[in-house]
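Researcher: Next entry in the queue.
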Amino acid sequence: MSWDNVTSVYSAKMWTDNPDTTQAHLFANGNHQAKLTVRLIFNVVDANQPGPTQDECKAALSLVDYQTGADLSFLKVGDKGEYTCVYQENMPAAITPLPEADNQMATPPHSGSYEFDLYVSSDSTINANYAAENVALFISFIDASGTEITYNTTANGKPSYVAVTVHPPKKYAMPGSGLVPFILYEQDSKPHYVKDDYGVVSKDSIDNMVVYGLRIDDPYFIITHYEASNTASSPTAFRQIIISNNSEGSQYSYHLVQGYLPLQNNVKEKNYSYTTLLGIEGYTSSGATADLTSYNVDIYQMSGVIIFVNIEAEIAWDFYGAGDLVKSSASAKLVVFDQFGNQANVEVGAGKDSPLTLSSVT
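Model: Structure for this entry, 362 residues:
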């Protein structure tokens, strides 16, 4: 076995990516993770013979409470997730350098350096009061003689720990609430577009087209992900307001407003330009739906911003095989996440106002 060549632990150290490498800050939302980097070096019988594998080293390692040496009470260890950004509560932070490399030329011989990352998180089910915890290392393995060898970096061992400060989940709200707000703003009131009416409509007039941006109104916290599983994406509209309906028989005529969530939205991309397709749908003779007319709209998207498009149009048609307008209306309901995994439920476009508005943030 690979542990047969190991006699003891020479060095075990741990640090974070924070400017102060002995500190980590964590939101207790179940998503945010603090990365803890561990470096292990072992004393070995023969430096020319193999030692344990990386996976064996990780299996022999536990994270424990620095003061007590017991299992962690307020933190969970897990695989790397999506939200591992370093949070600095107060910028600029103090700077502490990485641990110095150990002198592996000293005797007795040592195995190579093992370095890997572990991830911890917290949530209200295990940490209702958002308690901090100092994290240390505990290592246990069986040597060639069958003896259990243990080593720890707690207060009773050779100290090396990271102090993890736990913060309540970040709360977002509507503007004027006193909390950090989301805002919906006009990004482009005259976007360039090209329309295609497929030879179906007799009138296709755009009275107004506006590109909106949704973002967190804060210089530090930004949107990095959102989910909109129950909201239609372009080319289908998620909202529709009928301003007037002048249809008679098989002659259809509408003045309407429709709102769209572009399918190409990418909140992580910087300086992202694309063309999105927006459609106004009608029924075919078979009862299926198809676009009566569509608009290819040029969009410029900045990182941390979710794009919406709102159009006000007058459209008419009288065409054999084309039926009435597809009528449906809803608001856009999104679950939005910042770079630390804090989430907010955001609703856009509820009500009957023609302009697109921010309806709620919870």
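Model: The mean pLDDT is 91.
Researcher: Noted, moving on.
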